[in-house]
Design brief:
The complex is a heterodimer of chains A (424) and B (249). Chain A has 424 residues and is an alpha+beta fold. Chain A folds into two domains: 2-51 and 265-419, no CATH class; 75-220, no CATH class. Helix content of chain A is 56%, strand content 19%. Chain A contains 16 helices and twelve strands. In chain A, strand 2 and strand 3 form a beta hairpin. The two termini of chain A are 28 Å apart. Chain B has a single domain (28-248), classed as Lipoprotein localisation LolA/LolB/LppX (outer membrane lipoprotein receptor (LolB), chain A, Clam), CATH 2.50.20. Chain B contains five helices and 13 strands. Chain B has helices spanning 2-24, 26-37, 122-127, 132-135, 244-248; strands at residues 41-52, 55-66, 70-77, 85-89, 92-97, 102-105, 136-146, 149-158, 167-173, 179-185, 191-203, 206-216, 222-233. The longest helix of chain B is centred in the N-terminal third of the chain and has 23 residues, at 2-24. Chain B is globular, with a radius of gyration of 20 Å. Mean pLDDT of chain B is 85; it is low at 5-22. Chain A binds chain B through residues 108, 110, 113-117, 170, 172, 174-175, 177-184, 215, and chain B through 50, 52, 57, 78, 80-81, 84, 95, 97, 99-100, 102, 104-110, 113-114, 116-118.
Chain lengths: 424, 249
């Protein structure tokens, strides 16, 4: 009997092809959108987390508690003391792959009559090269050298100040004792990360020169630690408490994991939540379309259902027949959605979506947020979880949508079906 | 008795209108402040005591000025600031940094930066070249007594649309015509800076503040006290003093 119901359900979907096609298209479009949007959000979260880990958090970051609290304004005097020694000790720990000391401060960059503010990152060029990957993004000139008074600047900053490779700029700031200090630097190269904020504001100089400007020998604002296994960051940070609590390296030091970072820990879940709400609305619309089509299918066929019942089909069989039809339609629609949405997302995963081109270069460069939140190219991240969950979502919605009309029609008396229309 | 009373009333009638006119005319008060604060030339040795988050930093410097338009400042201490020279000519400011051995002409963002880590900005230096009465229109508020000194209270509003401090509230000592306290407001009405004169000295016919304190309200727990240790007015200063050559010397 079950086989007969399956056969009947399959036959029914091919009887009115237009009707079936319309429903399948609705499900396909919905699932395609769901897969694309999900992989796109996943892509944003992944790329932002990755860039944040590379540029500002490491797996674990050591700094003073006050620096952590006021990180956005980069208080110069909040330093990890004897950071060379501390870094050496951390490097000896087994799980550690890289330790990067950095000084970060705001400064004014001057060239002839032009002055522009910039964010200076003083670090070891060789270490920064490994975790930030800036060396591969140099589009003009060369990477900076720790032995020379060289600075690496972003493309947008260079454009703003009309700077070229080999130009001399003057970097002026107040040191940790509120004395004004200036040093001339030669532009060694220009980088382009594709992140407006980074390309517009960041300047890289050798760590020792950063320390000289700030008058803080042997100290750093941040120590970024990279581990063999990022997932063990929490455990590692807890283990550091003894070392950083000794007092040798300054008062009230803190070790924060990448997950505790402001962007990854607070902003990203918020972005995800907003997107999920938008997605929820899209899904609701998709579900309504499917529900409407399924209702139409049943309402159009009330006389046919009456005939089937008069011929002896039981209520449960009528119910099963309609649900089976929905299952078939849902499977076809969801499978097509997975193919189209998955294929499209997989293709974009390779090529990326260039938002800078879409929004227009000028408009995009105005999108200057204090974090490296969105790069100009977003690569969606299609996961097996997205494919499977979207497929079953399509199936589930199709079945849920017909439950009520299937129940109503199964309860209908044959005579009633011939006389009047089904009231739902 | 009646005669004395008549003379007194007559005297009052003659003097009073002058007094009241003088007291109530903000333009005249501004004029008197300007004449106290402007001079032909001056040489001064000063100290800048910056207090920020429980830290106290003392900076010593000497300055040569002609009028309010030209000045040359050289920092003597601390070590990291020694040799830093600032040249101001009208509204142009140039700084020589010994660490870089370069001269920088300040413009744009830099003018709004803190001057040598103090609560004062470089822009505060240039805006002092302007006479108050030429840039502001004044309104008299209720008179007040400030630390035992009778004061006129003036609210000045800029005549120009672009002005660092769009409004200034000044407490002017009625006797000495020196602004004892000043509150500086931005165009949005936000209190940006407060300055107070702590000590005033009489130099020949001129009252001049020799100790004052300024607080940048946008910096937390911060104030800068400026103490004039020595000041000589109307001395001969060669024009050469206000050149780039002197910055590099």
């Amino acid at each position: 009997m079950f086989l007969n119901i399956l056969k009947l359900g399959w036959k029914n979907i091919s009887r009115n092809r237009k009707r079936t096609l319309f429903t399948v298209v609705a499900i396909t479009v919905g699932i395609t959108m769901l897969i694309f949007a999900s992989s796109y959000i996943e892509g944003i979260v992944d790329s932002t987390t990755e860039i944040a880990k590379r540029m500002r958090t490491g797996d674990v970051k050591i700094m003073t508690s006050e620096y952590s609290r006021l990180e956005r304004i980069m208080p110069k005097e909040e330093l990890v003391l004897n950071s060379e020694k501390l870094s050496e000790r951390i490097r000896e720990i087994d799980d550690v792959t890289l330790v990067s000391q950095m000084v970060k401060f705001n400064a004014l960059i001057s060239k002839d009559e032009l002055n522009e503010p910039g964010v200076i990152i003083g670090g070891d060029p060789e270490v920064i090269k490994i975790h930030m990957g800036i060396a591969e993004m140099v589009i003009s000139g060369t990477y900076f050298n720790k032995e020379k008074k060289e600075v690496l600047i972003g493309r947008l900053f260079a454009e703003k100040m009309g700077l070229k490779v080999n130009d001399e700029i003057l970097l002026v700031t107040t040191d940790i004792n509120y004395s004004t200090y200036a040093l001339p630097f030669r532009v060694s190269g220009i980088f382009n990360t594709g992140y407006t904020y980074l390309d517009k504001h960041l300047l890289f100089i050798p760590l020792e020169l950063g320390r000289e400007i700030l008058d803080c020998p042997n100290s750093s604002h941040e120590i970024l630690i990279y581990l063999k296994n990022s997932d063990k960051a929490d455990e590692f940070a807890s283990g550091l408490k003894n070392i950083i609590g000794e007092g040798t390296y300054g008062d009230s030091l803190t070790a924060l994991t990448w997950e505790e970072d402001e962007i990854i820990g607070e902003l990203m879940p918020m972005v995800k939540q907003i997107w999920q709400k938008i997605l929820g609305i899209i899904l609701l619309i998709v579900a309504m379309v499917i529900l409407n089509t399924m209702l139409m299918i049943v309402m159009e066929r009330y006389q046919e259902i009456g005939v089937l019942k008069a011929m002896g089909l039981k209520s449960s069989e009528v119910f099963s027949m309609i649900v089976t039809e929905a299952l078939f339609i849902g499977t076809i629609g969801s499978a097509l959605g997975v193919l189209i949405g998955g294929g499209f997302s997989a293709w974009l995963e390779k090529t990326g979506i260039n938002f800078a081109e879409m929004a227009g270069k000028e408009m995009w460069e105005k999108f200057d947020m204090p974090f490296a939140l969105f790069g100009n190219i977003i690569y969606p991240n299609l996961t097996l979880e997205i494919i499977v969950s979207s497929f079953f979502f399509g199936l589930l919605i199709s079945v849920i949508a017909v439950l009520y009309p299937a129940y109503k029609s199964s309860k209908m008396l044959p005579a009633e079906a011939f006389r009047s229309k089904l009231k739902v | 008795m009646k005669k004395i009373l008549f003379i007194l009333i007559l005297l009052f009638m003659v003097i009073a209108p002058e007094f009241t006119a003088e007291e109530k005319d903000p333009f005249d008060i501004l004029n008197k402040i300007d004449s106290n604060m402007t001079f032909e030339s001056a040489y001064a040795e000063m100290e800048m005591i910056i207090t920020i988050k429980k830290r106290v930093i003392i900076k010593k410097f000497k300055s040569y000025s002609i009028g309010n338009t030209r000045s040359f400042i050289e920092f003597l201490s601390p070590v990291r600031d020694r040799g830093t020279k600032i040249l101001k000519k009208d509204k142009i400011i140039k700084i020589y940094y010994p660490s870089a051995e370069r001269i920088l002409r300040l413009s744009g963002h830099m003018l709004r930066q803190s001057m040598m880590g103090s609560d004062m900005s470089y822009e505060d230096m240039t805006e002092r070249s302007n006479k108050l009465r030429e840039e502001y229109r004044g309104e008299m508020l209720q008179n007040e007594v400030l630390v035992g000194n009778e004061c006129f209270v003036l609210m000045l509003t800029s005549i120009k649309k672009k002005q660092t401090y769009f409004k200034r509230k000044i407490w002017v000592d009625k006797r000495k015509y020196i602004g004892l306290k000043e509150e500086l407001y931005s165009k949005s009405g936000k209190l940006v800076k407060v300055s107070k004169v702590i000590s005033i000295k009489l130099f020949n016919n001129r009252y001049y503040p020799v100790e004052m304190i300024m607080e940048d309200k946008l910096r937390k727990n911060s104030s800068t006290r400026i103490v004039i240790k020595k000041i000589d007015f109307n001395i001969d200063i060669p024009d050469e003093m206000f050149t780039e050559r002197m910055l590099l010397k």
